Predict the structure.
Amino acid sequence: MGMRFFFAGLFFLTLLFAVGVPAAQAADPFGEIEIREWTVEYGGLPRDPDAVSNSEVWFVGQVGDYIGRLDPQSGVFFKRDLDDEPGPHNLIVGDDGIVWYAGNLSGYIGRYDPATDQIDKIAMPDPAARDPHTLIFDADNRFIWFTVQNGNFIGRLNPQNNDIDLIKVPTPRARPYGIKQAPDGTLWIALLGTNKLASVDPETLELHEHTLPDGARPRRIGVTDQGQVFYTGYARGVLGRLDPTSGTIDEWPMPGGSNARPYGMAIDGANRVWAVEGGRPAMFVGFDPTTEKFISNTPIPSGGVTVRHMDYNRDTKSVWFGSDAGTIGQAMVGN
């Protein structure tokens, strides 16, 4: 269960060499941040943490079929097995402490009450919506919005009565993936199977598609306080930005080049963008939209391999992530 702390500088580089990272990979032209990691002793592809507080971080084990909780202060883990093996893909935690998770392989959204250990399952109203993918709360915690990747839907769940609305994406095999809400309430969705983003009006449920440069394959979404929409361009190794007002699109090559495979991303309290390039080690990269320059590039100490989703926590001024190396991580971004 042990917690491991890793710091930038010579000590950090010593650790990198100790685990066999080549010197060329350890070189960093941008500057590094502190990254902490906790090894999940029962494995199972831990991912998509939601940090409730300094002592409560929830996550799912997608392959291990469980809901997990980490106390970062003590390093103690809690595990709740899901006997129906739903391949939980993502979770979010409400202000009331209820944990909602995507039963990706079983076509439902789960509601777990830690106080009673009770699980309720809310089935999709259309069997074609077979794989709920990523869940978010809206700004008012009124609705849960979610993507359905292979079913090709955007969904809205009302937690008060468990009613679900499904919005079909018009482009076939669009693979709706990451989802975020903008300050004006608009939902933005990465359509991984295309070179498009989608936007949904939260009141009318009207969906629009927005075309990106060819081959973009956007995977995750982040929205700044000014409403600028950032995306990770997985296939071409870029970080992209769409200005919804003007329609202008800008892209910047990731430090790792065209094969960087940027995946998980988050935007911090200073509206800086953080994204992770895949690899051994995976690289935790920072970008400042004001200067339009990359500002940080840190190897994930465990190796990381792939970081699929990230969550910025304002209280701790840090970005939380799960890695395919079997860890829950915290990147101290400082704002």
In short: Helices lie at 10-18, 23-26. The two ends are 28 Å apart (CA to CA).
